[in-house]
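To make the argument concrete, we let one protein speak, a sequence paired with a row of structure tokens, as a model reads it:
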Amino acid sequence: MRKVLFILALSLPITAKAQNAATPVQTCLADGPAEPRIAACSTILADGKLSDKNRGAALAGRCLAQNSKREFKLAITDCAAALEFDPAQSRAWFGRAVAYLRLGQTDRAKADYDQTLKLDPKLLDAWVGRADTALTRGRFNDAIADLNQALKLNPTHAPAYSDRGLAYLRKGDLDRAVADFSAAIGLDPTLAAALNNRGTLFARKGDLDRAVADYTTALKLLPTYAPALGNRGEALRRQGKLTEAIADFDAALKARPGYAAALSNRGETRFAQGDMVRALEDLTAAVAADPGHRLSYERRAKVLLALNRSDEATADVRKAKELQGRPKATGPNVEL
């Protein structure tokens, strides 16, 4: 999850004794490790004499710290409470939007991002967050519009370029996508998602050497980054490097058990190696992980035919036809 930095305000006094040390107020509202922030905010909230505005700010601070811990349900509880005390607390709307988005509740996330931006149209992370919501819902033009606004506020914000590149990639505008991914990487060479997504673009163009190079750079930054492991494995498979591909798929599945694309692609690799039994195991697991994984049915049908199980193969071909029109979903994996 991206780090979000912004300033909340609490109008509590700081005593002379505490001026040289971090006070609960400073810790609660500062960027930093989540646990001390949560403890500091809780200390403030124990004061029964807090004004509604200050209580709302402290609850919003704790909400944001809970998001940092990926405790999204607790974050929603704190942000909702903050809004009861101060409905104009834009950071509470923002914090709840982040939590809703991470929990996959995109409609609620969008509504809260909308409210955040009404109250604070200069909050860059809210523009980026609402764009992420639009990307998740397949509304790529809306995402691009929000990211353009974010880049007006900060023309050097690497994640906004990365997300806009993803929107262009999903629209099929590969030239603009590669320009944005490259801009993001130029601004922040540690942005693993941009490297993974640019690798995806190169793979789509058939430039597998450059795809592998980007995936490898992403994995130097995040060695257990499942999408980059799975994507590099698929690029290696397409290059005929089957043993190396299997190693990457194994690592991807260790990092993300039940990863349908990695299971399907490993099954296809094992089919190419002539290992029909384990190919069938992988492809059956891929179908179980994602019953709408169309290409997995097509691939399993090939394996079943090779094993002389024609009735089962026919059933898989029929199922694949029923799913026609859905993405095959086993190519390179892009992520926010």
